[in-house]
Specification:
The structure holds three protein chains of three kinds. Chain A is mainly alpha-helical. Chain A contains three helices and no strands. Chain A has a domain at 21-88. Chain B is of the alpha/beta class. The chains are: A mainly alpha, B alpha/beta, C mainly alpha.
């Protein structure tokens, strides 16, 4: 149970501080999946800085936006492919995971 | 030419007794003592009557009877089944398998003779 | 020249094609074929119903008016999609585990299956979606009109509007045919999804084709086209920051909340893994759809007369260039965009309307009793079909009444803003266990009212639905209540203004009321299940009643439905299964029926939870129940009592079953023993009787014959006697009534005796007499009997040409071992297990003996505290007699 898990003191009981490499890898891929939209928001907002006299033109913004779009789709494809290759079908980590304090096995009961 | 009886039975003393009784009545008695190749012998001999024991080494009498009945050329041959187990379900199995007659050991000699005679007549 | 009649023919052919595809896909799915129907690609393509005619025609128009701003509508969904791990994954998982049928169902299910909430969400969805359906019908009509401008034979507005009607009717028929084949709204509509996916390909291909034609055919290549853009009136990058960010956010929110997207993304989802593909493939799709929008807009602005409708550039540019085939393709693209949106929206809305409005009303009218399962099914299907027709026709009337004016063009964003009001309740329900039903109701009400006041009503223009005075001076003349400058927020963009206030106050009301109110137990139960969905069983499925206890289910059902009704239900089901009494087998079907019945009394989610308690599938964990406190504590106590009881019952049943198995086995053994005894007794008796009759009746026997037959009789009587002796011996040994006559004896002496007793001639026995000088304190006669049996067996069964039996005596650790090994072929592995059983005669040996010898040996050795076993892997048959060492004494 997530609720229980959060009450415990880090490092106590059944929590493992280190886990196997594969699990660690998967955590980082999930982190990347979570951060990707944040990156997208930042990148999509950047053109707003170019407004004003002598700023960018529609064509510049268009090329930039489509470039970022393709980049994001590509990154998303890469990350989700890694996620699928590693332990397919098991994805029980919740949004609040702090990586050091998770059970080595992310699966629920 | 004498009518032929094929006796399939594994007890040598019983073979001897039945052979004695039937050959005195003018039958030509051949015997065979295991279940394995009983069908081959039946096919080769083409007897007029088969006397078949149930508990045979190698293969039980019900299976042999079923094979005889399934064989288009042998299908009609009269078969007298002998058993020493004497349970009701054995009789049922014999009837179902298509035995012409069924006798429980020990039998009386006269009865065996009568049955064999009647099986050939019909 | 393309005539409108040709256009109509193309439409009809295309629609026929769609029907065929949908029909084939449905058939394939039904027959279990076509796994490709469930591929992630089809899933991704079906998501493209986000791109409606508003995208296909409207995006270019939008770009022609406001430049790059149009792209915000597609950036929002892109961000949501690549951020699938945050929200979509959870929504899809919950949708599958809770068998959610619509967004209204999800929200109401989260807040304790509240029907009030469901009705409210349904109403907002209908209000927000109907104009959008009207927009699609309008786009089809307008695209016909675009052709008619070139060809003056079709100008009548009446005919145009009748086209809208035909399209609406056709779509309703299609949706009813393929969208309501099953009463279970949670089931997949393979035909519909397939048709949608196909239309997704058509519209993308059409738009790309027009784009390629415009850039390379009309624009003169990429460089020239970019120059054209730079020279057009949309060359400047001047989108206000608030609109750029605000509209991106709005489209992101709407993407999550749109009923039609929810339908394809959550309800029709076949496999959570499909999201992983959609996360990159859908952004690619959106990007491709948007790629040529600015070029088409710029070239259109340059080439077409200034009064041309930019919303139709996609169509009018190829027409102007005389590319009729391309124009027809483009028309089909727009037609696809419009029809797929209407179909899915109609399914989504009709599910909500029938499940949350029509069915509850019908059930209330019929009263609580006399609800036959089949009856309900038919009514539900009928309700869904009528709702589909109703929703589509509502769209058509809206289209007729709004008069194809400009009001419709603006409806896209207005609709987005309205549907986004679901977001706080939805996300709060997904991530915050403290969210309550009243909080959700409050948030939705505040958001909906503000949306109506600030955006929807003013969007028809001043004085149409909202008096000019209100717009200019505020409600009741209060200037801070001006709909487009609420609380003095002046100078903001109208849409951004409305979205900001409605979402802000919606969320505020939702959180505040949630904090102040206390949820009902069922809400907390559902809340825990939603928020912690990943902690629960990952794979929802149908009930399997393997462990269910029908009796416990009956007890529970009686408590909920009342004894008489519960018993009637149970005995009815039992009767249906061909059983008598009150307890049916807990089959999947029965549990399904039971859950449906119970949900009528306690709500679907509760019924599900309660059955899962008894069936033993832990969708509700003990921790969850703990968290739900008060009433739930009672439920838990009750359920653990049930659990203990069913465990006990299971134990007793198992014991009974084992006892019964044992008895059955014993009875079979007894039968077979009697049958064996009968055989063994009757066989010698047959010979005896036959030969005595011969001696008595048959005359003329010579002396030799007489002697021979007499000796047969004699031998067979001895055999009989021996058999009877053995049987009695064995029965005494088995019953344990044997008295052992313990005395001292030398092993060598006993073996001597045994060899002598068997009288084995022509049979060599190898012994090492020196090792046999061991004195035993045992029952010498019994042990000798074992030795005799073993030697006699070897004598009887050893098949070597020159049979040899070797007897080895050995002291090992605390036991004395005596091996009897011959040089024959031994006993086959399969037979080794049975040789110590009674009457076990292996192979086809005709040697005399009833097969009791080894059984007797085993019994004797057991009485003597030793053992006898077969030693496999020797050169011949080998038996080992083992005796405990304490019986031994060193030879004096």
């Amino acid at each position: 149970m997530t609720g229980k898990r959060q009450d415990q003191i880090p490092g106590e009981g059944s929590r493992a501080v280190f886990f196997e490499r594969r699990t660690y890898r998967r955590r980082r891929i999930i982190d990347a999946t979570r951060l990707l939209p944040v990156l997208g928001v930042v990148l999509f907002l950047i053109p707003l800085l170019w407004q004003g006299e002598g700023g960018a033109r529609t064509t510049d913004v268009m090329i930039y936006i489509f470039g970022i779009w393709a980049l994001l789709a590509g990154l998303s494809g890469l990350v989700s492919r890694d996620l699928g290759r590693d332990r397919p079908g098991v994805d029980n980590e919740n949004g609040t995971d702090a990586d050091l304090f998770d059970l080595p096995d992310g699966e629920g009961e | 030419m004498a009518r032929q009886v094929l006796l399939i039975e594994d007890e040598p003393n019983i073979i001897e007794a039945i052979s004695f009784i039937l050959s005195r009545d003018g039958w030509d008695v051949k015997s065979h003592s295991n279940g394995h190749d009983a069908m081959d012998v039946v096919r080769a001999q083409r007897p007029d009557v088969v006397i078949l024991d149930v508990m045979l080494p190698g293969r039980n009498g019900f299976d042999i009877l079923a094979d005889i009945r399934a064989d288009p050329e042998l299908g009609q041959v009269p078969v007298l089944m002998l058993t020493a187990r004497g349970q009701v379900k054995d009789r049922e199995m014999a009837e179902r398998a298509g035995a012409s007659h069924y006798m429980i050991k020990p039998f009386s000699n006269a009865e065996v003779l009568d049955v064999v005679r009647s099986l050939v007549r019909t | 020249m393309t005539t409108p009649n040709l256009l109509v023919l193309v439409c009809i052919l295309y629609v026929t094609f769609l029907f065929t595809i949908a029909f084939a896909a449905d058939r394939a799915a039904r027959k279990g074929r076509g796994t490709w129907l469930r591929s992630p690609l089809i899933y991704t393509l079906s998501l493209s119903i986000y791109c409606t005619a508003w995208t296909f025609y409207g995006a270019v128009g939008y770009a022609a008016r406001s430049g790059m701003e149009f792209v915000t509508i597609y950036l929002g969904p892109t961000l949501v999609m690549i951020g699938w791990w945050w929200t979509l994954r959870k929504m899809v998982r919950i949708g599958r585990s809770q068998r959610i049928t619509s967004i209204a169902d999800m929200i109401s299910s989260r807040y304790g299956k509240s029907n009030t909430l469901a009705v409210f969400v349904t109403l907002i969805a209908v209000v927000g979606t109907t104009p959008y359906i009207a927009l699609q019908l309008q786009s089809v009509t307008l695209s016909f009109a675009a052709f008619s401008k070139v060809d003056p034979t079709l100008t009548s507005v009446v005919r145009l509007q009748s086209i809208g009607l035909y399209v609406a009717i056709g779509l309703a028929v299609f949706t009813i045919l393929f969208g309501t084949r099953n009463v279970d709204a949670n089931e997949r509509h393979h035909g519909v999804v397939m048709a949608i996916a196909l239309e997704a390909v058509v519209k993308l291909f059409a738009l790309l084709a027009v784009g390629v034609f415009v850039v390379w055919g009309l624009g003169g290549g990429i460089g020239d086209t970019l120059a054209t853009i730079d020279a057009s009136k949309i060359a400047e990058w001047e989108v206000p920051g608030s609109r750029w960010a605000g509209l991106t956010m709005l489209s992101a929110m709407a993407f999550i909340c749109l009923p039609r997207i929810f339908q394809v993304m959550v309800v029709e989802n076949e496999d959570e893994g499909h999201l992983r593909t959609a996360t990159w493939a859908f952004p690619v799709y959106l990007m491709l759809m948007s790629l040529f929008v600015i070029p088409i807009a710029a070239v259109g602005l340059e080439r077409l007369p200034s009064d041309a409708n930019p919303d139709l550039f996609v169509l009018t540019l190829p027409l102007m260039a005389g590319e009729d085939a391309l124009a027809i393709l483009s028309f089909l693209g727009g037609f696809s965009s419009a029809t797929s949106m209407v179909i899915v929206a109609a399914i989504a809305l009709s599910t909500m309307v029938s499940n949350h409005i029509v069915m509850p009303i019908w059930l209330r009218m019929k009263g609580g009793t006399a609800v036959v399962a089949g009856d309900v099914r038919d009514v539900a299907l009928l309700a869904r079909r009528l709702s589909i027709a109703g929703v589509v026709m509502l769209g058509y009337f809206y289209f007729r009444l709004s008069g194809a004016g400009t009001a419709l063009a603006a409806i896209g964003l207005v609709s987005f803003a309205g549907l986004s009001q679901f977001l706080p309740a939805l996300m709060g329900g997904l991530f915050w266990r403290g969210a309550t039903r009243l909080g959700a109701l409050a948030g939705l009400t505040v958001g909906f009212v503000l949306w109506l006041y600030c955006l929807f009503l003013p969007s028809f223009g001043p004085g149409v639905l909202m008096p000019v005075s209100v717009i200019e001076d505020g409600l009741l003349g209060l200037s801070w209540l001006r709909p487009q400058a609420l609380f003095g927020a002046q100078g903001m963009d109208k849409v951004v203004h409305a979205v900001m206030w409605s979402m802000l106050l919606n969320t505020a009301a939702f959180i505040t009321v949630s904090l102040l109110t206390f949820p009902k137990p069922i809400e907390r139960l559902q809340g825990a299940q939603f928020v912690n969905v990943f902690d629960h069983s990952g794979h929802p499925g149908s009930w399997t009643g393997g462990l269910a206890q029908s009796e416990d289910l009956l007890i529970m059902t009686q408590r909920i439905m009342g004894a008489a009704e519960a018993q009637a239900l149970f005995s009815g089901m039992a009767h249906k299964q061909g059983l008598t009494g009150y307890l049916p087998e807990p089959s999947t079907e029965f549990l399904g029926v039971l859950e449906r019945e119970l949900s009528g009394s306690v709500g679907a989610a509760t019924a599900h939870a309660m059955i899962s308690q008894i069936v033993g599938r832990a969708t509700v964990s003990v921790e969850d129940l703990l968290a739900v406190a008060d009433e739930a504590a009672q439920i838990m106590e009750y359920s653990s009592r049930l659990e203990a009881k069913s465990a006990e019952q299971a134990r007793t049943a198992r014991q009974l079953r084992e006892a019964n198995d044992k008895l059955t086995k014993l009875s079979v053994q007894k039968d077979s023993f009697l049958s064996q005894v009968s055989h063994e007794l009757r066989t010698p008796m047959t010979s005896i009787r036959a030969f005595s009759e011969i001696l008595r009746d048959a005359g003329g026997l010579n002396l030799r014959e007489q002697q021979k037959y007499s000796s047969i009789i004699y031998d067979e009587s001895r055999r009989l006697t021996r058999l009877l002796d053995d049987l009695l011996d064995l029965s005494v040994l088995e019953s344990g009534q044997i008295t052992l006559n313990m005395q001292l004896g030398l092993v060598a002496d006993m073996l001597d005796r045994a060899v002598a007793a068997t009288g084995a001639d022509g049979f060599r026995i190898e012994r090492d007499v020196a090792s046999e000088q061991i004195v035993l304190n045992t029952d010498v006669d019994r042990l000798s009997q074992v030795f005799i049996n073993l030697i006699a067996n070897a004598h009887k069964y050893c098949d070597a040409d020159q049979p040899v039996l070797r007897i080895d005596v050995r002291s090992a650790d605390d036991t004395l071992e005596i091996d009897f090994a011959d040089n024959g072929t031994g006993i086959q592995m399969a037979d080794q297990a049975v040789i110590f059983e009674k009457f076990a005669r292996i192979g086809e040996s005709t040697a005399a003996g009833a097969g009791l010898g080894l059984a007797i040996c085993r019994e004797i050795m057991a009485r003597l505290g030793g053992d006898i076993s077969y030693v496999p892997g020797q050169s011949g048959a080998a038996f080992r007699v083992t005796l405990p060492q304490e019986m031994c004494m060193a030879a004096q």
